[in-house]
Amino acid sequence: MSQLPKVKIAGAQEYATLMNKIAETSGGTAPFPDVNGLANTNYWDETFGTGTRQQYNLSVSGGKDGLSVFGSLGYYDETSVAGRNAGEWKKITGRLNVDWDVNKVVKWGLMMAPRYEKYPTPR
Predict the structure, then answer these.
(1) Looking at the predicted structure, is the pLDDT value of residue 113 above 90?
(2) What is the DSSP string of 32-57?
(3) Under DSSP, is residue 14 helix (H, G, I), strand (E, B) or coil?
């Protein structure tokens, strides 16, 4: 699991007080006349959460009499720290390698590596 470090963000009253001071210093009127009546919303917690990542791999190899074979499968799944609506990446991979020594002069080989990925556009 991955999580962004918590950032200290100004609360509603702290932000309003600062904005009132800026306005008064520059000769304007205070945009927030009632600082104590403001409700706090922690937008960091509302926006970010915990992301997850899973990865699994399996491989097999073997051979006999001039023939060698290797195969593998992989699965990957990741969810963004900004939630499922921000991005979820899924990937399935495979690999197959076959090498065959036909004789002392001729060698034959096959390599395949298919992959399927799904990464939706954030909403």
Answers:
(1) yes
(2) -S-GGGPPP--HHHHH--EEEEEEEE
(3) helix
User: What's the confidence (pLDDT) of residue 123?
Assistant: 54
Question: Residue 70 has which token pair?
Answer: 């290797």
Burial of 79 (0-12, 13-18, 19+ CB in 10 A): buried
Predicted local confidence at residue 84, as pLDDT: 56
* Separation of alpha carbons 13 and 7, rounded Å: 17
Residue 16 burial (C-beta neighbours within 10 Å; 0-12, 13-18, 19+): buried
CA distances from 75 to 23, 66, 114, 121 (A): 55, 31, 12, 20
How far apart CA 98 and CA 117 sit, in angstroms, is 25
Note if the pTM is more than 0.70. no
